[in-house]
Design goal:
Keywords: Membrane, Signal, Transmembrane, Transmembrane helix. The chain is an alpha+beta fold and about 270 residues long. Helices cover about 25% and strands about 35% of the residues. Helix 1 packs antiparallel against helix 4.
């Protein structure tokens, strides 16, 4: 019975030691391999300037950085159905920063034709706006101020005069040289390790807990085995002490010879 118990205890101790060794030296996560696009895949509009990855909470994040023109939207950079290391990834976060800005100005004049109720220029100004907003297809914007008004001499059927309002002003546009985007992609399915890390239980702690439990069980088995062995030796009945035999010499007992009475009878 001793040998199976000792063998079982040795197995528990060996398993606990091996588990602790695995907990001390976790296997490093290998970096994923880059996947090249096949010729039939559609080429993206912009290519990242750099691609890197980092581990966060047990999951591998892919980081792509772009330097693109100011009017580029995030949707133009996002990759749908992206795969990395055999796993599906989706856009998780975006950061951006504007680098370099240039402000341009230019003088603009603009005329508008309208109807006024008076042939007097000063009186006709009451029917005309003092300023108008300006915005063109080149990105310039601003406000133009009424400079002058020219009124025609012909009275129209509705008792108004045709007039031309002259506006002028300085408009501006601001252009950024480039925008630096950082796109972070995360796996679509969060691994179990990430969930354990969020709860505060890392794989190393989990393995160490298992190792301690196995060692504790092994110690309990050893103590139990020793406690069971001790009564087996103490519970046996005590053997009575044998008193030494004492021989008392007597005249009736002849040692190694015959008695004289026996000789007389024989005569």
């Amino acid at each position: 019975m001793k040998k199976p118990v000792i063998a079982a205890l040795c197995c528990f101790l060996a398993l606990g030691t091996a588990t602790a060794a695995f907990a001390e030296e976790p296997t490093p996560t290998p970096a994923p391999e880059l996947v090249e696009l096949s010729p039939e895949d559609t080429a993206p509009q912009f290519y990242p300037d750099s691609i890197s990855w980092q581990e966060d909470g047990g999951q591998m994040l892919v980081i792509k950085q772009y330097n693109v023109p100011y009017d580029t939207a995030v949707a133009d950079l996002t990759e749908s159905g992206m795969q990395w290391g055999g796993s599906d990834y989706t856009l998780w976060g975006v950061t951006q920063s504007v680098e370099g800005g240039v402000t341009e100005e230019k003088e603009v004049t603009q005329d508008f034709e309208l109807s006024v109720r008076s042939a007097d220029a000063e009186t006709a100004r009451n029917d005309v706006k003092e300023s108008v907003a300006y915005d063109d297809e080149y990105g310039f914007s601003g406000s133009l101020t009424l400079q002058d008004i020219t009124i025609g001499e012909t009275l129209q059927a509705d008792s108004t005069y045709m007039a031309t309002a002259h506006y002028a002003g300085t408009v501006t546009r601001t252009e950024a040289g480039t925008v630096h985007y950082t796109l972070l992609y995360a796996p679509v399915s969060v691994p179990v390790v990430a969930a354990a890390a969020e709860s505060g239980i890392t794989p190393a702690l989990l393995i160490m807990g298992i190792a301690c439990a196995l060692l504790f069980i092994a110690v309990l088995l050893i103590i139990t085995h020793l406690l069971r062995k001790e009564p087996s030796h103490a519970a046996g009945p005590a053997k009575p002490t044998t008193a030494p035999k004492v021989y008392v010499p007597s005249g009736d007992i002849v040692l190694g010879g015959r008695n004289e009475d026996d000789d007389e009878e024989n005569l």
